[in-house]
Automatic annotation (TrEMBL):
The keyword Transmembrane applies. The chain crosses the membrane at residues 174-198, 219-239, 281-301, 330-353, 389-410, 523-542, 548-570. This is Uncharacterized protein. Keywords: Membrane, Transmembrane, Transmembrane helix. It comes from the Eukaryota. It comes from Holothuria leucospilota.
Length: 581
């Protein structure tokens, strides 16, 4: 005898009955206009259930796909985690598979899911979380794009390395050795050409700025620009640095001085050699000490060698003169290296602040939460107490002390020079009137006291009254990267302060025009404008339709800075050569 059906909108508890009196009205949230179908009626659209014979609940949560189905599933671009207590993804998958069984032979052991459903989080890069359809364990848990893994699919899998937070497949082993050698060779060639040109200028009579001064001045602008923009791009998760943009992303990372990550790529040799923020911090705070120690060791070893050999020097004065020149060169190299590495080292310090952690709650009731480091979601902030205190100490001893010491030393020398030059001018005015134009005056500009060569690069490109401006620029770079590192672009304070800083420095440069050279001033204004545009784009909610075009425009805008500088350099050197012929 065939089984009879209940009327539309009614069902029998547990799926079996012998009388129409056992048919119950389907619960709230169900479609009561059709047959029940061995359940408490199907759920309405955008409703889901956790019990085959229970009510359906409205499902409008962001990131969940609840359309035309009775269970919750992730939409592309979202992530959830099932590892907290009372969440059981295995049980939920069995329940979903059983729910899709339309017959009366469904599994009675999985008619309901008794656990909790995780809270949904938006992936930083939506493309990293495709979440392809299906009801397997992997599909329900959520899937990451090829090459990505971890929390919010933000980490690179083995065999991949990171370029501004985009995971790129590791190149062939041979290329891993050739590329670093090529980069080193290009840098060595560039330095050799600059030094050769500098020595040629020293042999002749130099009029105006040297090639070395011009290159250093413009490299400071370009380096400062890319160190700030590199930090912006690393936190702007809408740009996918793969395909045609990979080379541009790597170039920006080179100039940003993330050499260990991008050139050496230790994780491509061995997955255990991954560079994480904790290791970056140790390397960063050790680097100034290492540079200073190596330089001091070299100088004192050379001093000891020259004192005990004395073959090259006819007298004591010659020896002292040579040691003074050597000391000046060593201090110059140390100061330049510390100046160049200052912004990236500051970033490694800031990213281990307690405020640089982000809290994620796994469950709907926010009872089970985790704190992960914003720069690396694999790192649990609960284990960073020692690093937090160390970051505060490093801030006092390096982030604050370095620019303050530079400002103090610069001010001390500029005051001495001002006093000396004023005295020399006064002496010249009181000189006997019998002197003529052939008399060598102590106040001649070429003979006046100047800044030591190891401080010269800091203020050579600025007008005398703006001798302190490079320290102000250091403060700008640190300020613009600080909040991005600590809070990210989703925080309104970051957007407000970063935009305010960009506008302030654009206004200051337009008002005071602190640089001596017209091209340098225009290049700096262009770089500040480019930073301002980057910040505006990061602050705005750009429609997805324009994402590709906006990304390409941003990348081209940022590449133009180094193209302009390179073109001007070749034009400058060719002009110098024509004058010499």
């Amino acid at each position: 005898m065939a089984c009879k059906n209940c009327n539309d909108g009614t069902f029998v508890k547990n799926g079996g009955g012998i009388s129409i009196r056992q048919c119950l009205v389907c619960p709230e949230g169900t479609n009561q206009t059709m047959k029940a179908g061995f359940r408490a009626c199907r759920c309405k659209q955008n409703y889901t259930r956790t019990d085959r014979f229970g009510p359906c609940e409205l499902c409008l949560d962001e990131g969940l796909n609840c359309t035309h189905q009775e269970f919750k599933r992730l939409l592309p671009g979202y992530y959830w985690n099932w590892t907290f207590p009372f969440a059981n993804i295995v049980e939920y998958v069995h329940f979903v598979e059983n729910l899709k069984n339309e017959s009366r032979f469904h599994d009675k052991a999985y008619v309901n899911y008794s656990g909790e459903i995780p809270k949904v989080h938006k992936c930083q890069k939506p493309g990293n979380c495709p979440n392809n359809g299906g009801v397997t364990l992997e599909r329900i848990a959520g899937t990451c794009e090829d090459g990505y893994r971890g929390w919010l699919c933000s980490k690179c899998m083995n065999g991949h390395y990171s370029v501004l937070n985009s995971c790129i497949p590791c190149p062939h082993k041979v290329w891993l050795f050739i590329e670093p050698l090529g980069i080193i060779g290009l840098c060595a060639l560039f330095c050799s050409v600059v030094l050769w040109q500098y020595k040629r200028e020293k042999k002749g009579r130099l009029v105006g700025r040297s090639v070395m001064d011009v290159i250093v001045s413009r490299l400071k602008i370009v380096l400062g620009f890319y160190q700030v923009v590199g930090g912006f791009f690393a936190s702007m998760h809408g740009v996918n640095w793969t395909g045609a943009l990979q080379l541009i992303g790597e170039a920006i990372t080179y100039v940003e001085l993330t050499i260990l990550r991008i050139v050496v790529r230790p994780q491509c040799y061995d997955s255990q050699l991954e560079i994480n923020p904790k290791l970056e911090f140790i390397i960063g705070v050790s680097l100034p000490v290492f540079i200073t120690t190596i330089a001091a060791t070299y100088f004192y070893a050379s001093k000891w060698y020259f004192h005990y050999t004395k073959r090259k020097f006819p007298d004591h004065d010659s020896l002292q003169s040579h040691l003074f020149k050597l000391k000046t060169k060593v201090i110059t190299v140390v100061l330049v290296l510390l100046f160049i590495t200052y912004p990236p080292i500051c970033s490694t310090i800031f990213q281990l602040y307690p405020r640089a952690c982000k809290t994620f709650c796994l469950d709907q009731k926010n009872k089970h939460c985790i704190k992960r480091l914003r720069s690396d979601f694999d790192i649990d902030c609960e284990d960073l107490t020692l690093y937090n205190y160390s970051a505060y100490v490093a801030t006092a001893l390096y982030v604050v002390a370095f620019p303050v010491c530079l400002l103090f030393v610069l001010r001390r020398h500029t005051r001495r020079i001002e006093s000396s030059n004023n005295f020399e001018l006064l002496t010249a005015e009181n000189t006997d009137s019998s002197v003529n134009e052939s008399t060598h005056l102590i106040c001649d500009t070429s003979e006046r006291r100047r800044l030591p060569s190891w401080l010269h690069f800091l203020c050579e490109n600025y007008k005398p009254k703006f001798w302190y401006w490079e320290i102000v620029e250091l403060s700008r770079k640190v300020t613009q990267t600080l909040l991005v590192t600590l809070l990210g672009w989703e925080d309104k304070v970051t957007v407000l302060v970063t935009i305010g800083t960009s506008v302030l420095f654009l206004t200051l440069h337009a008002r005071f025009w602190p640089m001596k050279d017209l091209f340098d001033q225009r290049l700096q204004m262009f770089s500040l404008t480019a930073i301002f545009i980057n910040v505006l784009v990061a602050a705005m909610d750009v429609p997805e339709y324009y994402d590709g075009a906006i990304n390409i425009i941003l990348v081209l805008l940022n590449v133009v800075v180094i193209v302009i500088m390179a073109g001007k350099y070749f034009n400058f050197t060719s002009t110098v050569e024509r004058h010499k012929v």
